[in-house]
Design a protein that fits this description.
Number of domains: 2
Mean pLDDT: 86
Structural class: mainly alpha
CATH architecture of the largest domain: Up-down Bundle
Radius of gyration: 21 Å
CATH superfamily of the largest domain: MFS general substrate transporter like domains
Largest sheet: none
Distance between the termini: 42 Å
Helix content: over 70%
CATH topology of the largest domain: Growth Hormone, Chain: A
Strand content: under 5%
Shape: globular
Order of helices and strands: HHHHHHHHHHHHHHHHH
Length: about 400
């Protein structure tokens, strides 16, 4: 049975890490469903949902650089375990808030801020753990497996959370706390790394901003991260799915749920394929192609008035987006020296979060100015244009070869 597993998953400690990511992802998505329902039920005001997201986001720009330094100075396994323990405490707090009636907004805002701290401190260490556990030749497949775990959580977590919440709201938080406890146990069961990859350089300003400096100097890496950032920021219009469900496709709330799930289904398929057979084509040109394909898929989605075609277009965007994510994550991991993994991951996480949060705002703002369909089509055209011209800004990106051949850049 062990020989049938993808090679990276057959490594004991990475298998434990993967199980931790899976259970943590399921719990996080379950919590998001329950919190969203309860927060909206207090005042029935959409702004409250935005405030929760804002409180969770605010710690990121403040703590990202210190969190990256923590991930590069302390044992990453211990930092990850600490973040998981804090997440368990958050689930328990939400359980007590629910038992008390969940009639006030402020407890959810306070807990969202705590969750933001846990995420920003834990993510760089969690993301930097994989190179400590997996040989370099297996890293592309291992990073694809991380994507599989994440997409399973995105697809199954909301449905599971919604069903449990309908039966008993308290049970959602109890179940999430149990899943998060499994994540913590899996991390604690991992063996401490024999050869630590953390830095020994003295703390200071230069050390704090070393991740930013490295990304700016590594033009190939900056090009890959920047392409993903602007692609999602300007071209991903899934935030407008409620408008399509209600006013264009007329498919109701069930159809909206299916529309929101479709990109994750495509992404899961791509992640499974990449985990079994990592990308062997030149990564730079492939990244440009999949970003342009994403733009084409969004154009089809924007123009479609037939649900099956819309779902197919969204599945395609999820599929190629996962390939883009895998290329970016693998390039970051393979090109970054071991002692900088945490700090570079922290900066990358800021890019990702900013593109997701600001991208949703950009989609809504443009749609309010020029209309929903023109906004989505324009976003897709912008993505194609960016992909076609990006190499003029970052010629090194077009020369990026096979991911397995990438080596850490000189510091």
């Amino acid at each position: 049975m062990r020989q049938r597993l993808p090679p990276a998953l057959a490594i004991r400690d990475f298998g434990l890490l993967w199980a931790a990511l899976l259970s943590n992802g399921l719990a996080s998505q379950m919590l998001a469903v329950a919190i969203g329902w309860q927060v909206y039920s207090i005042h029935h005001h959409p702004l409250d949902l935005g405030l929760v997201g804002l409180m969770e986001f605010l710690p990121l720009p403040v703590l990202a650089l210190p969190a990256g330094q923590i991930a590069d100075r302390l044992p990453r396994r211990a930092v990850t375990a600490g973040a998981f323990a804090l997440n368990i405490a958050i689930a328990v707090l939400l359980l007590f808030v629910t038992l008390a009636g969940a009639r006030s907004l402020w407890p959810f805002l306070a807990i969202a801020a705590i969750a933001g701290v846990a995420n920003v401190v834990g993510n760089p260490a969690l993301r930097a753990l994989t190179p400590e556990l997996v040989p370099r030749e297996l890293l592309p497949g291992a990073l694809a497996l991380r994507g599989v775990a994440g997409q399973i959580g995105v697809i199954a977590g909301p449905a599971l959370g919604g069903i449990i919440f309908a039966v008993e709201p308290v049970a959602v938080y109890a179940t999430a706390a149990g899943l998060l406890t499994l994540s913590l146990v899996a991390v604690l069961a991992m063996r401490p790394v024999v050869r630590s990859l953390v830095t020994t350089e003295p703390p200071g300003w230069d050390s704090l901003v070393a991740g930013v400096r490295f990304i700016v100097q590594a033009r190939m890496l900056l090009g890959a991260i920047g392409l993903d950032l602007f692609g999602v920021l300007l071209g991903d219009s899934i935030a407008l799915a409620p408008v399509f469900a209600q006013s264009i496709l007329h498919v109701g709330p069930i159809g909206l749920g299916v529309l929101r799930t479709a990109p994750s289904v495509g992404a899961l398929v791509a992640a499974v394929l990449l985990a079994r057979k990592p990308l062997h084509t030149p990564a730079g040109p492939t990244l440009l192609v999949v970003v342009a394909t994403f733009g084409g898929g969004m154009i089809v989605f924007g123009l479609s008035k037939w649900l099956p075609l819309s779902l197919a277009a969204l599945c395609l965007t999820g599929f190629v987006d996962m390939i883009s994510v895998n290329i970016r994550q693998t390039a970051v991991t393979m090109l970054t020296p071991p002692q900088l993994q945490g700090r570079v991951s922290a900066v990358e996480w800021v890019f990702i979060s900013a593109s997701n949060e600001l991208g949703a705002f950009e989609s809504g703002a443009v749609a309010s100015l020029i209309g929903t369909v023109p906004a989505v089509v324009a976003g897709g055209l912008v993505m194609i244009g960016i992909a076609a011209t990006w190499t003029k800004l970052f010629p090194a990106l077009s020369r990026m070869g096979r991911l397995a051949d990438l080596r850490p850049a000189q510091v």
